[in-house]
Amino acid sequence: MNLGYQLGSDVGGTFTDVYVFTPHGQIFMHHGTTTATNAVLEGKGARTALMVTAGHKDILALRRS
Fold first, then answer.
1. What pTM, to 2 d.p., does this model score?
2. Which Pfam families does this entry report, sorted A to Z (predicted)?
């Protein structure tokens, strides 16, 4: 039986995990915000830059979240 793609999420007090499973039961995507949040708080992330065009200034407000 083909169920298509399945999405699962787990929202905890300090973390959120999101999984996407393929119709064959493989994990297609896994996203955990704890890792990213900890890297930012501990200053261990890679140096990055954010460039936007004039029509997308609202993205600059989102970078603060």
1. 0.40
2. Hydant_A_N
